[in-house]
Amino acid sequence: MLPAVNFFDARFTSLRGYLDERFGRTERQLDALASVERRIAADAEATLELASLNGEMAAWLKDQTARIPGVAAAESARSYVGKQLDAVDEGLAELLNYANSHKGFAAQAGLWFNPPVSLNYEPGQVHVGSVNERIAEVPYVFRALDGIGPGGHILDFGCAESTVSLSLAALGYKVTALDLHPYPLAHPGITMVAQPAESWDGPEEKFDAIVCLSTLEHAGLGWYGENESAQDLDRVILERMLSWLAPSGRLIFTAPFGIWSVSDFERRYDDEHLEVLFSGWKVLDRQVALQRSDKLWELVPGFQSSAASPSDNAVIMLQATPASI
User: What is the tens place of the pLDDT at every residue in 142-180?
Assistant: First the structure.
């Protein structure tokens, strides 16, 4: 029996050693795998934490960026794009009214053209704000040019805040655009002269017509950046225009009318001062348009300055030719 026992003891001892080694290695592998799992779990948690932190940081940066002047305004402005009228709030309405005014961004760039009809923005609505004298003056200018065909040479004096020069050029006239400031609208038919009328040498070819659209009343008062003049610069300029105009040519003139007054901004003419101003001229047509309300102007035949009240807002519209004709 002993030999057999010895034989099997040796075999069992060997098998046990093999199994101990085998399963011991498996446990070590399981321990290593568990360690890897723990690291992966820790890394995943760290990744989630980092992602959350990144999200919070991005939100913070967006909030801080939005507080930067200019960026916040741009973001606010973009938020209105594509929206309906009811999205207009008090702040946007104020901005739009400013932008469209004679002090707004376009005006600062020299691109404000004094529209006859202005719009007024309010929260959730837009309506007609006012109608100014241009509603009568501009049509009067074009009607007065009847009979002067395309190719006629026309001076537009005080043109910078008006589209009249461009319209005349588009109709085929040769236009000289005279103003203290450069004319901002280009056309092959427009020749720009940016200098004071009182120092300009005048045209090489006399004009068939001179348009003086609500301009002469400002001359020499300094409102538009020109040097203030102690003399009656309106009379000086109008006398010079006599020499610029062809003998059969005509002057088309508009200006504020009523009770005589002079302010830092303009002169308001009455009949007496107009008679002096137009010495040397023959008046061919005289019309007065009176403002009845913020949105209504109408012609008043035979209206004289002696009948005007201090509250009246009126414009005189004249056609004249050199008196020698």
Answer: 999 998 999 999 999 999 999 999 999 999 999 999 999
CATH class of 134-322: alpha beta
Pairing assessment for the beta strands 117-122 and 125-131 based on DSSP bridges: antiparallel
Give the CA count within 13 Å in the CB-facing half-sphere of 155. Answer: 32
How crowded is residue 5: how many other Cβ atoms within 10 Å of its Cβ?
9
Compute CA distances 175 → 206, 208, 257, 300, whole Å: 12, 10, 27, 31
Q: Where are the alpha helices (DSSP H) in the chain?
A: 2-66, 71-78, 90-99, 105-108, 134-144, 164-170, 233-244, 271-277
User: How many of the other CB atoms lie within 10 Å of CB of 169?
Assistant: 21
Closest CA relative to residue 288, chosen from 253, 325, 243:
253
Contact 305, 270 (CB under 8 A): yes
CA triple 136-142-144, angle to 5 deg: 95
